[in-house]
Amino acid sequence: MEDYGYGGSDSDDEYCDGVYDDDHDECQEDEDEQKYYCTRPPSCKFIRKESLLAAQKDDLKRTMDLLSLKEHNARTLLMHYRWDVDNVLTSFVEKGKEHLCAKAGISLTDSSSFSSSHVLTDTTCEICYNEFPTDEMTTMECGHIFCDECWTNYFIVQINEGKSRRITCMAYQCYSICDEGKIRNLVIARDPQLSDKFERFLLESYIEDNRRVKWCPSIPSCGNAIRAENDEYCEVECLCGLQFCFSCSSEAHSPCSCLMWELWLRKCQNDSETGDWIIANAKSCPKCSKPVEKNGGCNLVRCICGQPFCWLCGGATGLAHTWTRIANHACGEYKKDLEPKTANSENDILRYSHYYYRYKSHAQSLKAEEDLIKRLRQKMDILESGEFVAKDNSWITDGFTRLTLSRRILCYTYPFAFFMFGGVLFKNEMTQEETAIKQSLFEYHQQQLEKNIEGLSMFLEKPFEKYPAQEVLEIRMKIIALTSATNNLCEKLYDCIDNELLGPLQQTTHIIAPYRSGGVEKASEILENCSTETG
After folding, report:
1. Assign residue 105 a region: left if phi > 0, alpha if psi is -120 to 50, beta otherwise?
2. Same domain, yes or no, for 137 and 84?
3. How far is CA 458 from the centre of its chain?
4. Which residue, 35, 100, 259, 417, shows the most beta carbons closer than 10 Å to its own?
5. Do 500 and 433 share a structural domain?
6. Does 49 reside within a domain?
């Protein structure tokens, strides 16, 4: 059994971070600012299967118009530059059209001039050495001419080997890209199904070769793709509801970098036995040693014997505490001087255990709080029909949204800290003194965020739907203030990571997705009425 909450009664609740004044009479935050919207423009869009062709043609048309190219040449150019239109235009301005096209294997010569001399005579194919009339020969833009039979056999082999996105001329040391229209016409006459495969390769190149577009990694696949308009280091939500990191296609893991998250998953997998021990389903009471199971979000629990203790570290806390602080207790900070003087391997296990357990504890709290929204909706229904009738109870849902978004961020701060302040990732970039200073600064922001999250969780779980109207108003002001303060603390944490921790280091590997107060960005439709354009 357990009793949630920091403090024995509501009168013990005290906010001390500058959101309330000393008398708790008024909230210093404007209630109109309780809703949070990201000021950045939408940076990601989803592409349905039926709108893929329209999305591809959008970039093709832009390139064709600006560079005066045929469609197949524009496609070849964009494939070479991984469908980065901005990069193509930059290279065009800096180096010119001829250099741009030559690098991509595009010949700007009109192929019709090469075939005019062969109108009245048969021509020898330099592949099979047979003579063919002109209408049975095909000339590519590079000027090389071979018989249709040899071209077709060559194209079939290339398509079956998966090389159809950039099929080069089969002349010796000619690297010009063949005209996709001519490839299509020759192959379809021999094998229509293979021609469809070729078309599919060209279409899917927009995703496979495009660093700004990726398939949604949902399992089973939803078939959608996501295009990042502004920044490939972002976290997105597909139409199917899956949230993932656009850079590595793993689950959204900010503020961990992709490399940190990959190493953390590998570490957890390799140390699964240690993890099983850490993530035990119950904790022993520090007083009576009875097992206590945690089934709510708050991390301060109370045993049936009356002993309160911290779920994160299992240490007794006493009764002298409020939700903002526990007297003489701070377990979020990793203190190296408390490590026993044992072998390095044992110290590594203890250090990993410290961060892993806190990571999993907050993950469990996040999972437990998923059911909270159902209870909150019931509370809202009771409030709207009871003594306290409010026109707008969005402060409840806003508080819950902020709680879950911030809890997820807090969860991933522990893998970040594990690699940031220990191991080999940054050992050559920071001295021990610099590491200690940065770790202290980070843990200050981390603990402030954790403190507010626990407070927000506690107030949302209170049975305030049963309170008198005046007490409901007080709870409302506290939740609004905590919602605002928690958002501000998340911003400060990310600012600390960007500017104080990672910013000064000479590294480009550990780039984290920016903080968005509205949470992971939901992708919007890339084009309106795309399905009608594909017909």
Report:
1. left
2. no
3. 29
4. 417
5. yes
6. yes
402 and 447 in one domain? yes
One domain for residues 64 and 126: no
Q: What are phi and psi of 525, to 5 degrees?
A: -60, 135
Q: In the sheet where 235-237 sits, what is the strand order?
A: 243-245, 235-237, 521-522
Helix (H) or strand (E) holding 85: helix 85-95
Among 91, 93, 87, smallest CA distance to 232 is for 87
**Residue tagged active-site, from 125, 216, 298, 313:** 298
| Distance in angstroms (rounded) separating the CA atoms of residues 403 and 449 | 11
Lowest average pLDDT, out of 48-57, 177-186, 521-530, goes to 521-530
| Contact call for residues 450 and 490 (beta carbons, < 8 A) | no
Q: Please tell me the predicted confidence (pLDDT) of residue 392.
A: 76
Q: How far apart are CA 199 and CA 165, in angstroms?
A: 9
Q: What would the DSSP string read from start to end of 468-535?
A: -HHHHHHHHHHHHHHHHHHHHHHHHHHHIIIIIIITTSS-SS---PPP-TT-SEEPEESSTTHHHH--
167 within some domain: yes
Single-letter amino acid, residue 248? C
Number of domain units in the chain:
3
Last residue within a domain, chosen from 143, 168, 190: 190
Examine the pLDDT at 6 and tell me if it is beyond 80.
no
Omega prior to 192 cis, within 30 of 0: no
Tell me the one-letter amino acid at 408.
R
Give the alpha-carbon dihedral of 61, 65, 71, 76, to 10 degrees. Answer: -90
Top-confidence range, 122-126, 294-298, 329-333: 122-126
Q: Best-predicted range by mean pLDDT among 47-61, 78-92, 412-426, 439-453?
A: 439-453
User: Does residue 441 sit in helix, strand or coil?
Assistant: helix
Annotated catalytic, 298? yes
User: What range defines the domain where residue 351 resides?
Assistant: 257-278+347-512
243-253 per-position pLDDT tens digit:
999 999 999 99
Residues 6+ apart with CB under 8 A from 73: 101, 106
Question: Which candidate, 497, 495, 492, places its Cα nearest to that of 452?
Answer: 492
Look-up: residue for tokens 């504890």?
A: 361
Q: pLDDT tens digits for 428-481?
A: 888 889 999 999 999 999 999 999 999 999 999 999 988 888 898 899 999 999
| pLDDT value at 194 more than 80 | yes
The closest alpha carbon to 453, from 500, 402, 519, belongs to 402
**Strands (DSSP E) along 79-121, which ranges?**
none
Tens digit of each residue's pLDDT (9 = 90 or more) over 476-518: 999 999 999 999 999 999 999 999 999 888 777 888 999 998 8
DSSP assignment string, 148-208: HHHHHHHHHHHHHTT-GGGPBPSSTT--PBPPHHHHHHHHHHH-HHHHHHHHHHHHHHHHH
CATH code for position 366: 1.20.120
Element housing 61 (H / E): helix 52-67
Structure tokens at 246: 């656009």
